[in-house]
Specification:
The protein has one domain. With 59 residues, the chain is mostly beta strands. The chain is built from no helices and 4 strands. InterPro entries: WD40/YVTN_repeat-like_dom_sf, WD40_repeat_dom_sf.
């Protein structure tokens, strides 16, 4: 199952990375210079639960 990513206000997501030391953290970067931090929970089902944590927007 491949998750469909439609974050960043439906703008393209150019990059994403999972912290290799903590697989519950995801960072995404979008076309407007915005960076988003997410928490990932892996319940017993195969679909992860992803929760927005914080954002950082560049100029």
């Amino acid at each position: 199952c491949t998750p469909n990513i439609s974050w960043h206000g439906c703008d393209p997501v150019y990059s994403c990375a999972i912290n290799p030391l903590d697989s519950k953290r995801l960072v995404t970067a979008g076309m407007r210079g915005s960076i988003y931090l997410w928490d990932i929970e892996w319940p017993t089902a195969q679909q992860p639960a992803i929760t927005f944590v914080s954002s950082l927007t560049g100029a």
